[in-house]
């Protein structure tokens, strides 16, 4: 099953079918962060509670990528910080790959980092993209 959206408006929100975060599932974003961008994020959300089970936050203003979750709502966990792999004004390809116990983040076809699941990711029912970014396509494989 492959789903694809082209040139989605930001913020972009799409409902995920039940059990989308299974091993082998791949979420691919192609786009670019425009000049003057501060931040943008990719989040897997449980909409009933507003919980961000996983958030990947690209922070140009801090030159870092920050991974985290807030479960229960409002209680952010410990941030996992990594060097920012993106450049403003340059096209990117970001893959968020689901494995059995973690997300593996690939940026421009190179391994960037991992984020161990803190919760049952099958609770995620929404993919959300927000912030200072232009997205050319979103694909779920």
TrEMBL record:
PROSITE patterns: GALECTIN. Keywords: Lectin. Residues 13-141 form the Galectin domain. Pfam families: Gal-bind_lectin. Coiled coil: none annotated. PANTHER family: GALECTIN. This is Galectin. It comes from Daphnia magna.
